[in-house]
Amino acid sequence: MKQFQYLRASSQQEALTAIAKPGTKIIAGGTNLVDLMKRGVTAPDKLVDINHLPLKGIVATKTGLHIGALALNSVVSENSLVVQKQPLLAMALKAGASPQLRNMATVGGNMMQRTRCTYFYDTTMPCNKREPGTGCGAMEGYNRMHAIFGASDHCIAVHPSDMCIGLAALDAVVIVTGKKGERRIPMTEFHRLPEDHPELDNTLAPGELILGVEIPDNHFAKNSYYLKVRDRQSYAFALVSVAAALEISGGAIKQARLAMGGVAHKPWRLFEAEKALVGKAATEENFKHAAEIAMQGAKAYEYNAFKLRLAPASITEALKHAAGMA
Amino acid sequence: MENENANFGPEHELDPKDNSRRTFLKQSALITTVALTPGIAAKAADMHIDEKIAEAFERVPLKMEVNGKAHSLMVEPRSTLLDILREQLDLTGTKKGCDYGQCGACTVHVDGHRVNSCLTLGVMVNGKKVTTIEGLAKGDTLHPMQEAFLKHDGFQCGYCTPGQIMSAVACIREGHANSEPEIREYMSGNICRCGAYPNIVNAIQEVKGGGFVV
User: Fold this and answer.
1) The 3-state secondary structure of A144-197, one letter per residue
2) Which of these, A55, A81, A159, B47, has the minimum number of CB atoms within 10 Å of its CB?
3) Which of A74, A100, A118 to mutate to test the interface with B (most CBs of B within 10 A)?
4) B200 within 8 A of B191, measured Cβ to Cβ
5) Is residue A125 part of a domain?
6) Considering CB atoms only, which of A3, A31, A98 is closest to B58?
7) What percent of chain A has pLDDT over 90?
8) In whole angstroms, what is the distance from residue B10 CA to residue A321 CA?
9) Are A220 and A170 in contact (CB under 8 A)?
10) Are residues B88 and B97 in contact, defined by beta-carbon separation less than 8 angstroms?
């Protein structure tokens, strides 16, 4: 690992001043960053350790639940407010990584983690995300884990987080701060599609710091489910994952939220499928119909065509679980 | 290398308290170093002096408590907790498996919580308490989890074992050892390539069921 300077930030202002300099990166849990630095995928000149900033709180507000950027994934997943009000988030968090990693990983860091595309990690391979302009190794390579939605000619990598899939489904808002002050970014707009700039994973401006995330109150707690399909039962990245949340009243679906992981460069919200569910009865037939709608525009590559069948089946399965039918 | 391998068989029959295997490895490494250090290599080493001086200036202070003992060290910011434990404090019980947070062999407790020490920068545990596998036993009395791993044959080669045991203790403390599926889920961050999983689960269930204070 390349040597770097280390600064333990004691205030938000100190952190913001430090990260304004190019070549500087923030470190929180470090579970992805240290890994990337060891492999030479990234080599910052300076690391700013923000773990001492007071951003760990989980509090119920008048309109929702606020979770600080430095709250640990393990703590959030077991927090009584989260379990009670937003069980989908707890489920998504517990589906991610391992207990040890969840004890280190933070909410903000989880949002900032990079793709696990093997071509991004392998510094001997071309990768437009790691080194813009070098090409995409995955496009004609072993692309079994890769995107079926929203990919570009420059990058077909997928976003790796489970937590963010849950947050996207729950209409969460990311609160960030920077030189120009605070701003709020909907979770569905925090991450971006690769387009012509796959090196940019998200819409955070240079020098901005994540303060936390807010989940508006909802009526999904009774009927939500996070389904993760992977190569082994635990401790693996998703082939496909589905966050499903329903509000069911008198047998009819009043509101629906669906987001998928493992299929796109960002948490993939299924807005059209959600609309198709509203006002319908919670039946397998209706769930299958919604899943068909969700798959419109999907495009597979040589090794990931199985996702074209796995994804709709997973959507149906997740909805059945959410509705208490499985 | 052939000699080292040949020595592995009989080593297993030695008293486990005997550290002769480690001593042997250190000595053989020394012999190799001497054999490879004629004039050219020595000169190359000389040329690294500048680098060494620079490194000394780049070190930062780290205070932490390891297994109840306070340590005040100077470390490079890039040194992981794992490397500091093994290389600077000679606590080689914690193992380096993958070094990328994928296998769990390096699991230790920081302020009572299990973490992957290979992905933890040493500077980030400043002021914290670290417990390694060496800190579990009380003198000659093994920790109940260590006893259970022996009794249930919770290992074959033993390389993942320190991490498995640290994780197993945490698994019970966290309240996630209530059933076999739950234990398997909450031990999934520790890979055992010998496949001792059923015996590891049995060991954890015995400690949990025995009501031991872990």
Assistant:
1) CCCCCCCCCCCCCCCCCCCHHHHHHHCCCEEEEEECCEEEEEEHHHHECCCCCC
2) B47
3) A100
4) no
5) no
6) A3
7) 99
8) 56
9) yes
10) no
- Chain B residue set in contact with A, beta carbons under 8 Å: 55, 58, 60, 76-78, 80, 99-101, 104, 107, 113-116, 119-121, 123-124, 126, 167, 170-171, 174, 176, 184-186, 188-190
CATH code of the domain in which A265 resides? 3.30.390.50
From the list A5, A35, A99, the residue facing B186 with the nearest CB is A99
A38 to B107: CB separation less than 8 angstroms, yes or no = no
Chain B residue closest in CA terms to A233: B185
Q: How far apart are CA A285 and CA A65, in angstroms?
A: 34
CA distances from A319 to A1, A222, A223, A254, B50 (A): 45, 13, 9, 14, 63
B76: nearest CA partner in chain A? A3
Q: Measure CB to CB from residue A104 to each of B100, B116, B188 and give the nearest one.
A: B116
Contacts of residue A209, defined as CB under 8 A and 6 or more positions apart, other chains included, come to A12, A15, A16, A19, A26, A50, A69, A176, A177, A178
Task: Map out the domains of chain B as residue ranges.
Answer: 60-135, 144-209
Examine residue A96 and state whether it is found in any structural domain, yes or no: no
Q: Best residue in B55, B62, B111, B121 to probe A by mutation, most A CBs within 10 Å?
A: B121
Distance from CA of B170 to the nearest CA of A (A): 9
Pairing outcome for strands B129-131 and B107-110: antiparallel
Task: Work out the mean pLDDT of chain A and round it to a whole number.
Answer: 98
Is 0.95 topped by the overall pTM?
A: no
A141: in domain: no
Q: How many domains does chain A have?
A: 2
**Length of chain A, please?**
326
Distance CA A266, CA A195 (A): 12
Residue A29, domain extent: 5-51
A172, A199, A324: which is closest to A265 by C-alpha? A199
Residue A215 lies in a domain: no
Does the domain spanning B60-135 belong to CATH 3.10.20.30?
Answer: yes
pLDDT at A250 over 80: yes
Mean pLDDT by 10 residues, chain B (214 residues): 36 42 51 53 63 71 98 98 98 98 98 98 98 97 98 98 98 98 98 98 97 87
Can you give the CATH number for the domain in which A34 is found? 3.30.43.10
The helix/strand/coil state of A6 is strand
Q: A221 or B10, which is more confident?
A: A221
Q: CATH number of the domain at B144-209, please?
A: 1.10.150.120
**Residue keyed to tokens 């419109």:** A296
